[in-house]
Amino acid sequence: MTAGQARVAWGLVALAAALVMLRESLPSGLVRPPEWMVLPFADWINAAFAFLRDDLGLMTLTRAFSDVMEACLDVTANLLYGKNRWPHLGPIPWSVIAVSAGMVGFALGGWRLAALAGGTFVWIAVMGQWQWAMETLSVILVATPFSVALGLGFGVLAWRSQAFERLLNPILNIAQSMPHFAYMIPVVVFIGVGPKAAAIVTIIFSVPPMIRMTLLGLRKVPPEVVESGKMSGATRWQLLTRVRIPTARTDILIGVNQVVMQCLAMVVLASFIGMPGLGQKLLQLLQALKIGLSIEIGITIVLLAVMLDRLSKAWAMKQPVHHMPGVRWIERHRLLLIWLGLVALTSALAWLHPYFIEVERKQALSMAGPVDASMKVFIRAMTPVTEWLRWFLITWVLIPLRDAFLWLPFAAVLLLLAGIGWAVGGRRSALVCLAFFLPIAMSGWWDRAMITVYMVCVSVLVAVLIGVPAGLWGAARPVRAARLLFLCDTFQTFPSFIYLIPVVMLFGVNDVAVVASVVVFATVPIIRYTIEGILGVPPEIVEASSMSGATRGQIMRHVQLPLALPTMMVGANQSVMFSLFMVIIAAFIGTQDLGQEMQRALSSTDVGKGLVLGFAVAFMGLMVDHLILRWSDGRHRSLGF
Amino acid sequence: MQRKVLLLATTASLGLCAAAAWAEDSSDPIIIPIHNWSSQIVMSNVIGQIFESLGDSVEYVPTDSQAVYEAIRLGDVTFEPEVWEGAYGASFTAAVEKGGIHDVATHDAVTREDWWYPMWTKEACPGLPDWQALNECAALFVTPETGDKGRFLGGPVDWLKHDQEKVDALGMNFVVVNAGSAAALWAEISAAEEQQKPIVVFNWTPNFAEAVWPGEFVEFPAWEAGCDTDPSVGPLPDKTYDCGNPANGYLKIAAWDGMPEKWPAAYAVLQQVNFTNAQIAEMAKMVDVDGMEPEDAATAWLEANEDVWRPWVE
Question: Which letter, b or e, does each residue of A139-177 get, where b requires 16 or more Cβ atoms within 10 Å of its Cβ?
Fold first, then answer.
């Protein structure tokens, strides 16, 4: 930060402070956005959508697309759970699917993956969730290839044309920071509800990382490889499909992995607009307070995610095998033959006994009883603590803080943000901050937005207080770090809705419950990046400082933490993003922020309102993202790596 | 499954003949929406299985319970078996005005939604269910976030229940806190049950909560038409909302305008469908308390109640 930059930044902050001091005597136009400033964005968006839908007839186009989607969904639905559609073959018995998955796991990564993949399907079957899981998978199986193909296409286009990339980049940024509910409303308008709408929402949500990874992969292709392709006389098309994409294989497959993970993240949310299966069932069970059964479903979703994640990563890392000429067909396709044998065997089993086709709910195992009972015991044991915590936090922390956030004049908030922007990245960042936050003021949702900001701030703060010490503790030993990271993964993939109910039971319907549920998510990236940051500090530096006689505490404070800070800030950035998403979902506990309005917009299918709120949330996230990126860029430069 | 269809097919063959006499149903599936509460799911399955017995094909689609009216209007969903006056009356009426959806029939079941308390609350505040007695016990319901006033836990704000207006009009010592979903309401009741803590929440009938937690509605001054708009109606001459909610709201069946033409036989049955409060509570209980799957519960209900639904088909 240069001296001039600091002076301007302090000046802006001082001005903001002055506005806060003088709040009582300020004209009302500085306290809250004056009426002329509030623009009817929602009406404009609605008018634009009405134009697209009615006058341009976009509806016929989207409906045609959704018909294609539906045809694909019918095929997977028939194969997986026997919906009465072409090709009328299904349902495939669970035992066949389980051995097939096990075989794929074995081919990609040996016995461990085989056990994971096969075991996941056995778990699903014996827990009696087969039908639901297959309903879910039937949508994911269709959505994933579409996402991958679209992502690959857009990625290649963006790589070819700079102009297209410039156009695409901001769209991707916003798409990735917009809360899920905001997408769903236009989809309901254009596509309707049902599995096809769910598939389309899932695709929209999962495409961006694929585009990004494709672009990254293609960029990284070394010129020598391309050169050698050219020398062999490849055309441009051949160069792309035979040289560039295969070379970028690993990055592209990581993109596929991301697509799969995002699809699974949508399983529960998409059921608001018609995703059948696990998510739908989960919401139903929660509605009837069946926590044990919903946790079983949560475990299934986590297992599916872990399995697909490991499988696709193994696929990404596995290099293609090229056989020597003259190897016999049987030897080349040994695994295929074994698989066929196993399929024949299990099909025979399925023919002999219906248990191997589908385990009925009555025959299913369940651990819901003990889980519910231990939950009760836990809540009873925690009650004295939570009662006190609730009282303390509400009366002394949350309510005063919330009132303070709402009390701040909006002009002061904007000036403060501009000041922070200026301090981090000069005039440009100050303007970026304003460009992101001013529209929120102009949308007319200022108060609600401030409540969202307040909840995110509190949650991220609590998350840092928990996450950083936990991360430091974990980073001290590699085994511990691995266990903690695994725990983080599990918490992150576990469907967020399940947390909402126990949290309400513990704290009641209030801000403590909301903050508690958000903290669960916000802490995960902080722990993860703290561990990664500390482990990423070059060992030579640690060695050198311990040789110069620094104690462990000194190494931690003066060497490891400063060097790990840029990585940890990436964690903070993600933590803010997760909090924003979760605060929106926490509307189901009961909040008075943007999330509550978003929920209302979804139930009244108000596209304009939903998108305005979505943009408001996205802009908050993007602003934080910008600030942290700029800051850690500068930091990296001054650290010299 | 096979056996069930066979059973239904034979019992309903009469109906099929009668229907086939005047029109043929389309072979496209009838799309039935499924929401996140059990009585609706079981009822959907019951009606769906009756339709299947007529030879129609049926599909169930999970749908948001407010967005469903838009979907019916567009024909994406064929009908909605439970339109609650209190919760969905507004969405339904708005959709009817836009066109494409209409009112098919009204169930005998009446719906009621109002302030409600589980039985253990009455032990702490014996004057209940009278609202004035409740008001005197307000201190029992105090929570940290409501200061020295009692807390009333309302439903999500978008259910538009005017609880705050009621509190203001009747001058009650209560603060309305809105839960974000029905699940949050149940979670609070369940937590209160653990400690036998008094609690007053928004609730409605028929639903599964009655079977799990016995309770009563608070008796406010009785509803009179216009109480919400005309200050002179109701006990207080200068206040609106100085009354309880209607104690007998409708429960309707709504359908897509294209249904009578496309599936005349099924539509004719749908016009006859009619459930009572007891039947709906029973359906909810089969799933929420006995732990049956909604499909199985529907089959069981059909087997046990042939005398109820057979006349609809004939």
Answer: bbbbbbebbbebbbebbbebbeeeeebeebeeebbbbbb
The residues, ordered by sequence, that sit 6+ positions from B196 with a Cβ below 8 Å of its Cβ are B120, B123
- Confidence grade of residue B183 (pLDDT, cut at 50, 70, 90): confident
| Residue that the structure tokens 């009747």 belong to | B170
Nearest to B145 among A288, A399, A604 (CB): A399
Distance between B255 CA and the closest CA of chain A, angstroms: 16
| Alpha-carbon gap, residue A3 to B203, rounded angstroms | 62
Instruction: Inform me whether the pLDDT recorded for B19 exceeds 50.
Output: no
Q: What is the Cα Rg of chain B in Å?
A: 22
The C-alpha atoms of residue A612 and residue A441 are separated, in whole angstroms, by: 11
Q: Give me A122's structure tokens.
A: 């056995």
Which among A380, A394, A596 has CB closest to B157?
A: A596
Contacts of A244 (CB under 8 A, 6+ apart): A218, A221, A225, A226, A229
Q: Is the pLDDT of residue B91 over 60?
A: yes
* pLDDT, tens digit, 9 for 90 and up, residues A477-506: 889 999 999 898 888 888 888 888 889 999
CA B224/CA B233 separation, integer angstroms? 7
Domain A448-641 sits in which CATH superfamily? MetI-like (1.10.3720.10)
**% of chain A beyond a pLDDT of 90:** 55
Q: Which of A200, A284, A362, A506 to mutate to test the interface with B (most CBs of B within 10 A)?
A: A284
Closest residue of chain B to A590, computed from CA coordinates: B180
Q: Model ipTM? A: 0.84
Interface check for B195 against chain A (CB to CB < 8 A): the answer is yes
Which of B148, B181, B207 to mutate to probe the A interface, most A CBs <10 Å?
B181
Q: What share of chain B is helix, strand, coil (3-state, %, to 5)?
A: 45, 20, 35
The CB-side HSE value for A509 (13 A sphere, CA atoms) comes to 31
Taking an 8 Å cut-off on Cβ atoms, the answer to whether A193 and B177 are in contact is no
Domain membership flag for residue B290: yes
Structure tokens belonging to residue A343: 């399929």
Residue A603: Cβ within 10 Å count: 20
Name the residue facing B74 among A192, A501, A599 (closest C-beta). A192
Superfamily of domain A142-319: MetI-like (1.10.3720.10)
Report the residue of chain B nearest A361, measured CA to CA. Answer: B293
Residue whose entry in the numeric block shows the structure tokens 């991301």: A258
Q: Does B269 touch chain A (CB under 8 A)?
A: no
Q: Flag if B76 and A193 touch (Cβ within 8 Å).
A: yes
Same domain, B8 and B41: yes
Residue ranges of chain A with pLDDT lower than 70?
1, 640-641
The confidence score (pLDDT) of residue A1 equals 61
**What integer pLDDT is reported at residue A640 of this predicted model?**
64
Any chain A CB within 8 A of the CB of B282?
Answer: no
Question: What value does the mean pLDDT take over residues B290-302?
Answer: 89
* Interface contact flag, A603 B66, Cβ < 8 Å: yes
* Same structural domain, B117 and B100: no
For chain A, say whether B199 makes contact (Cβ under 8 Å): no
Domain boundaries, chain A: 1-31+410-442, 142-319, 448-641
